[in-house]
From TrEMBL:
Family: Belongs to the MYBBP1A family.
One cellular-component annotation, GO: B-WICH complex
UniProt-listed GO biological process terms: cellular response to glucose starvation; circadian regulation of gene expression; intrinsic apoptotic signaling pathway by p53 class mediator; positive regulation of anoikis; positive regulation of transcription by RNA polymerase III; regulation of G1 to G0 transition; respiratory electron transport chain
Organism whose genome encodes this protein: Macaca nemestrina (Pig-tailed macaque)
Name of this chain's protein: MYB binding protein 1a
Length: 1328
């Protein structure tokens, strides 16, 4: 009612008569435009945009609560409820709800009535039925979401009736009206629900159990108004034998309804709560869930069971959890986890993980329930292997008592596996296999133990900082003991010996335990600093593990190692422990701590590979002595870091993955103490020039690998295997080459001729007839030939073996270099600010350069890829870099110059890119370094006057914040030379992206290099193209623009514009492909200049440019049909459009002259068969008289009209008629003095031609027809400054111009050709 009484908006006439000023009218229009935009934004898909638009609309309406805007807003929002876009309907519904919530004076009944009148279901058309249904539904939802519906009884009753009516249209709305009704009734008061309940709930139990909505409404009434429900329906037992099948069907329908939503239906959880309330949970779970839903073999029903299981965890007691977690539901869940492996299959495991994590997080005060749930999920196994992942993030929610209990359960199951307590299953494929070996207990025990040991390690890995120290030590001791030791006799001093095995621990399980232990050791050793504060006595975890291993070795009567120690091995172990004791006195020093860490790791790895400490050739044999000397600090010994690096290199020479882990871990702790000499030891190994002749590093060959095979870890690097495979593949080819070489061996040929000649001499004559030789001579000759070929075969085999040996040594050396790259990666990753990192650039570049030339084998490819990855990602792209150069600035400047010169001399762009990126990295280091030594050195040079140049310019950051060590004069000269070489050299390895990267990272250098580019814009053809392309990209960089002041930027734009204008004087005269490319690049640069000037609103003199473009139009038109001219014409007219000249209509390809009035087209044209008679043909819609049409085109007379043809033929004929310009026939050429703009005849498709046929307009007005040649047209004076943009032309004028058939020459060109007055255009963006 109140909304209907709102005033109508005044018309403009009424507003004027009532005293409203014209300014108010413009203000209302402005507000109306803003007001209408709110409704467009409300329907947008972005949530932030919708919410902002709704808030602005409410704020706008709060200022005009009684105005006409409110009525329009309601009308517009109600209309939006039934729009065709389904995504927009909820947006308008939410906006309407907020509007009704903000303005409570708006009656809900009136709004509901407007919705029903707008979308009357009785009168709506069939095609509009679906939008009308959704409009009514979203309208009721808007009323409900406003929060006022439950307070307005009349509107509530009407809404309930409307929802009941909508529930009949299930094909369109499905169960949405029922859900909406349930949501509404759940918010009403008890008295209101008692009144409404008889109207919405049927008294028949069969009807209640027929749909999820009715059953959910029944449960709602039972919860809120049980007495009223009992009077209406009577006493009902939902879990009776008769009702259980109905409940199953209802839950199946509910599961199907949420199939796409993937959520738990509310009716299922309500039934669960009702069963718990009535103490009928076992019956509900067994008969309804397991025997009902789960037996249907319907995946939505199975997912409902899984979700019900997860949602029920917080509601159940410990006894009920045991019932649920050992039943068919969790077994079926395990089968789903095992079978859902394909990428497109739905996986429920993440959802179940969320359920379990929520439960564990919510019951921190009940560790027994936590432990029960986690043990139950860990007991779901597939032939012994638990389906839960070894790394399960839910363990972080366990309370300390529950965590201790879970670890104890895992250890007990490892020692004495109880297979009967597991919920085990087999998949259908496993059942079909019928393999008896899959069902033996030993296999299940092995799979379970392997999973348990990795689960223990993952717990420590994820919680080692939060876990108790005793628990971490317990897990570490457990893994160490069962990986390397065997109990002979239990003892109270070693608790691990009191735990017997119910199943013997097989060797495969020990290998898995060993692998898991070293993974745990890696976790504990990498956390050295944190672990030092946590372990007893301030010692690292590795120290306690070594002490525990020594305790086990000392109790030889109770415990023995899996591989017994020999006397030499035990002596090496004792010597290592003695060295540790000597180093403990200097444990506070970094060098002693480093050697101690190395000794501990090597000692623990000694349990895995017993040969490490007793092999006389192994570098670890001298490790204790070197550790003591370096740790104590003997003056005659080399620095301890160098000693340690040599030891690490010796360890890496062994093909052991364990030693590789040790080397990485130790080097990560000492890389901060690295010296130049120690780094040089690493680089000497990687240097391709010197590493080939190295003799001080012995690389283990295949015989050593066979000796290590029994003790080597199975997780050894795959690079050795790949290299051996590539060697085996190449053996066949090499053997064939050797055989061919043996065949053509000159010495063997001479020996063969000698033997043959000697055999003939035995016959007594020099004749060549073999028949003259006797039997003895033949036998002697055969023996000689046999011995000769046997010797040759031995020589070939010896050469082949030697070559194979050399190749194998080369492969081992290359594999050693790949492992040494680990140290380089650790250094650049952990110490990117170390100045020694700068020494890695050229050695890594040397490796890349050499590998790119000879990277044929797979091993060489791996070496190259790893080096390139370290160089590119970890070094050049590192966020941190060296800031303290000291006295290295001058050397780095020379290195930059050297790198840039090397980049220009590379054979290909790939290699040049690495050198160029290295120079950019050094530029960043020089620019970011504020070393005082650099400044002091510069000042000393300036005072001494030794520097002939004006002096290194210390570049200042913008604003003068801090000085850097970058010598701008030097690097400008270096990169200027490189840029000139790139522009002039024909096959330069440098590329445009390289210089663009330089410009974007160092815009100050770009500012100094731009004059070089501008200079080459008018140079030869190739430099001109490259310079235009690079200049176009550089001028669009924001970093470059920030380095210029406004006057400098304007001056630069003018210079570039002058150069481009000079290039365009030869536009259209291209004869070669390069010249054509140069013209394209010039026009692209010109358009880029226009865009830049338009964005910044620069004022430039464009008179000369306009004249040049006009003068080259004729040459462009002559080459219109050449290859690639379409792009050239598009760029040309894009530039002309910016200057205010629109592109004229294009002539159709193959246009012909219009036949004259005296000639009949029928006489010239042969009459085709199949044409309609003249009486059946359509007549043309042109006037019969000879008057001019509206656009100045003379109409054809009736006698000269050709006979009518079909529509397609008539359209084709129209297309062949040439466009007439200046009001004269197309057959006449314009006078030479008239500066006309001829239409372009570039070959285009008909669609493009139709799009390009737009009339040219100047300053927003259509051009009048031009007088014939010889008569001067009076010209209007153009303003000196004009805004070039979109012309404010009215719609009728634009339509009239589009309907014109005459192509007129722009008046701007005429005035520009006649007048000598300077034209200046301000290129700016049009105002919105």
């Amino acid at each position: 009612m109140g909304s209907r009484e709102l005033a109508e908006p005044l018309s403009p006439g009424e507003a004027t008569q009532s005293g409203a000023r014209p300014a108010d009218r413009h203000g209302l229009l402005k507000h109306s435009r803003e007001f209408l935009d709110f409704f467009w934004d409300i329907a947008k898909p972005e949530q932030e945009t919708r919410l902002a638009a709704t808030e602005k609309l409410l704020e706008y309406l709060r200022g005009r609560p009684k105005g006409s805007e409110m009525k329009y807003a309601l009308k517009r929002l109600i209309t939006g409820l039934g729009v065709a876009r389904e995504t927009a309907r909820p947006c308008y519904s939410l906006a309407l709800a907020q509007l009704l919530q903000s303005f409570e004076d708006l009656p809900l009944c009136s709004i509901l009535q407007q919705i029903q009148e707008k979308y009357d279901l009785c009168e709506v058309k069939k095609t509009m039925l679906r939008p009308a249904l959704f409009a009514n539904l979203f309208g009721v939802l808007a009323l409900f979401q406003s929060g006022r519906l439950v307070k307005d009884r009349e509107a509530l009753m009407k809404s309930v009736k409307l929802l009941q009516a909508l529930a009949q249209y299930q094909n369109h709305l499905q169960e949405q009206p029922g859900k909406a009704l349930l949501d509404v009734l759940s918010e009403v008061s008890v008295a209101t629900l008692q009144e409404i309940l008889p109207e919405v709930l049927k008294a028949d139990l069969n009807a209640i159990l027929s749909s999820p909505e009715q059953l959910e409404l029944f449960l709602l009434a039972q919860q809120k108004v049980p007495s009223k429900l009992k009077k209406l329906v009577g006493s009902v037992n939902l879990f009776s034998d008769e009702n259980v099948p109905r409940l199953v069907n209802v839950l199946k329908m509910a599961a199907a309804s949420v199939k796409k939503d993937r959520k738990l239906p509310a009716i299922a959880l309500d039934l669960l709560r009702l069963a718990l309330k009535e103490d009928k949970f076992p019956r509900f779970w067994k008969e309804v869930v397991e025997q009902g839903l789960l037996k249907m073999q319907f995946w939505p029903a199975s997912y409902l069971c899984f979700r019900l299981l997860g949602a029920a965890l917080p509601l159940l007691t410990k006894e009920q959890l045991q019932l649920v977690l050992r039943g068919d539901v969790i077994r079926h869940y395990g089968e789903h986890v095992c079978t859902a492996k394909l990428p497109k299959q739905f996986k429920f495991a993440p959802e179940m993980e969320n359920y379990v994590g929520t439960f564990l997080e919510g019951c921190q005060d009940d560790p027994e329930r936590q432990l029960a749930v986690l043990v139950a999920f860990s007991s779901v196994t597939n032939q012994g292997l638990p389906v839960a992942p070894t790394f399960w993030r839910v363990v972080r929610f366990l309370s300390p008592p529950a965590l201790r209990g879970y670890v104890a359960w895992l250890q007990d199951m490892f020692l004495q596996p109880d297979l009967d307590s597991l919920v085990d299953f087999s998949t259908n494929n496993q059942k079909k296999a019928q393999d008896a070996s899959l069902y033996v207990p030993e296999r299940a025990v092995f799979r379970l133990r392997k999973w348990i040991i990795f689960r223990l390690v993952s717990i420590v890995d994820s919680l080692h900082l939060e876990m108790e120290e005793a628990l971490t030590a317990q897990v570490a001791r457990f893994c160490l003991f069962h990986a390397f030791f065997v109990t002979k006799k239990p003892t109270s001093q070693i608790p691990e010996t009191k735990q017997p095995f119910s199943f013997p621990l097989e060797s495969q399980a020990r290998e898995a335990a060993s692998s898991a232990f070293f993974s745990l050791l890696q976790t504990l050793s990498t956390q050295l600093k944190q672990a030092t504060d946590q372990t007893r006595g301030g010692q690292p975890w590795t120290y306690h593990l070594v002490q525990f291993a020594d305790l086990l070795l000392n109790h030889s009567h109770n415990v023995t190692t899996v591989t017994p120690f020999s006397a030499q091995q035990r002596q090496a172990w004792d010597r290592m422990l003695q060295t540790l004791k000597e180093l403990e006195a200097h444990s506070s020093e970094a060098r002693a701590a480093a050697f101690q860490h190395l000794l501990l790791l090597v000692g623990i790895h000694h349990l895995k590979a017993c040969w490490l400490l007793w092999d006389p050739d192994h570098p670890c044999q001298a490790l204790p002595l070197l550790s003591v000397k370096a740790g104590v600090g003997y003056p005659q010994e080399p620095p301890w870091v160098e000693v340690l690096v040599e030891i690490l290199l010796a360890l890496l020479a062994q093909p052991s993955h364990l030693m590789r882990q040790v080397a990485r871990s130790v080097f990560g702790h000492i890389c901060s103490q690295l010296t130049p000499r120690a780094l040089q030891l690493i680089l000497d190994v990687l240097n391709p020039e010197t590493s080939e002749d190295e003799d001080h590093v012995v690389v283990t060959d295949d015989s050593d690998e066979r000796r290590l095979k029994g003790a080597e870890d199975k997780s050894e690097d795959g690079e050795d295997n790949r290299s051996s495979e590539s060697e085996e593949e190449s053996e066949g080819e090499e053997s064939e080459e050797e055989e061919r070489d043996g065949d053509v061996d000159q010495g063997f040929r001479e020996q063969l001729m000698t033997v043959l000649q000697a055999g003939k001499a035995l016959g007594g004559e020099d004749s060549e007839d073999e028949e003259e030789l006797g039997d003895e001579a033949m036998m002697a000759l055969d023996q000689s030939l046999a011995s000769l070929f046997a010797e040759q075969k031995l020589r070939v085999q010896a050469r082949r073996d030697e070559k194979n040996k050399l190749q194998k040594e080369k492969a081992l050396r290359r594999d050693f270099q790949i492992r040494v790259l680990d140290l380089v990666e650790v250094l650049v990753t952990k110490q990117p600010e170390n100045a020694l990192v700068l020494e890695l650039l050229e050695p890594l570049l040397s490796i890349i350069r050499r590998s790119l030339r000879s990277s044929s084998s797979k091993q060489e490819q791996d070496f190259l890829h790893k080096t390139a990855r370290i160089f590119t990602h970890h070094l050049c792209r590192a966020r941190r870099y060296c800031h303290d150069l000291g006295e290295r600035a001058e050397a780095l400047h020379a290195q930059v110059e050297r790198l840039v010169q090397q980049a220009g001399r590379q054979p290909d762009s790939a290699t040049a890119l690495y050198h160029f990126n290295a120079s950019l990295y050094l530029l960043r280091v020089l620019k970011g370094s504020t070393a005082e030594g650099c400044v002091r050195e510069t000042r000393e040079k300036q005072k001494a006057g030794t520097d002939p140049s004006p002096g290194p310019t210390l570049s200042l950051l913008k604003g003068g914040q801090a000085a850097s060590c970058l010598d701008l004069n030097l690097v400008t000269r270096v990169y200027s030379s490189a840029l000139s070489s790139f522009l002039t050299k024909r096959n330069s390895p440098l590329t445009v992206p390289m210089f663009l990267s330089l410009f974007s990272r160092h815009p100050v250098l770009c500012k100094r290099l731009l004059p070089v580019l501008v200079q080459h814009v008018t140079g030869p053809v190739r430099p001109r193209h490259q310079a235009c392309l690079l200049l176009q990209k550089a001028l669009s960089l924001r970093e470059v623009r920030s380095c210029f002041e406004d006057p400098e930027w304007k001056q630069l734009m003018g210079q570039v514009l002058a150069k481009v204008t000079e290039n365009l004087r030869v536009l259209g005269e291209a004869q070669t492909k390069a010249e054509h490319q140069q013209a394209l690049s010039s026009l692209e640069l010109l358009n880029a200049l226009f865009r830049t000037c338009k964005q910044e609103k620069l004022t430039l003199d464009l008179t000369v440019l306009l004249g040049v473009l006009q003068g080259q139009q004729q040459s462009l038109q002559q080459g219109a049909h050449s290859t690639g001219s379409s792009r050239l014409h598009d760029l040309y007219w894009q530039a002309m459009k910016t200057l205010g000249v629109q592109r004229p209509k294009l002539e159709k390809k193959g246009a012909k002259e219009v036949p004259s009035a005296t000639q009949s087209p029928i006489s010239k044209k042969r009459k085709k068969k199949g044409f309609l008679p003249e009486t059946k043909k359509r007549k043309k819609r042109k006037s019969e008289d000879g008057t001019l049409a509206e656009d100045g085109t003379p109409a054809a007379t009736g006698g000269s009209q050709p006979p009518s043809m079909g529509r397609k033929k008539r359209n084709r004929t129209k297309a062949k008629v040439p466009a007439q310009a200046n009001g004269t026939p197309a057959t006449k050429s314009p006078a030479p003095g008239t500066p006309t703009l001829s239409p372009s005849t570039a070959a285009k498709s008909p669609k493009l031609q139709k799009k390009s046929q737009k009339p040219s307009q100047v300053n927003g007005a259509p051009r009048p027809p031009v007088e014939p040649a010889g008569q001067k047209q009076p010209q209007k004076a153009l303003p000196e400054k004009g805004v070039v943009g979109k012309s404010p032309v009215s719609a009728p004028a634009r339509r009239k111009a589009r309907l014109s058939l005459v192509s007129r020459s722009p008046s701007l060109l005429q005035s520009g050709a006649k007048k000598k007055k300077t034209l200046r255009f301000t290129i700016s963006s049009p105002k919105k």
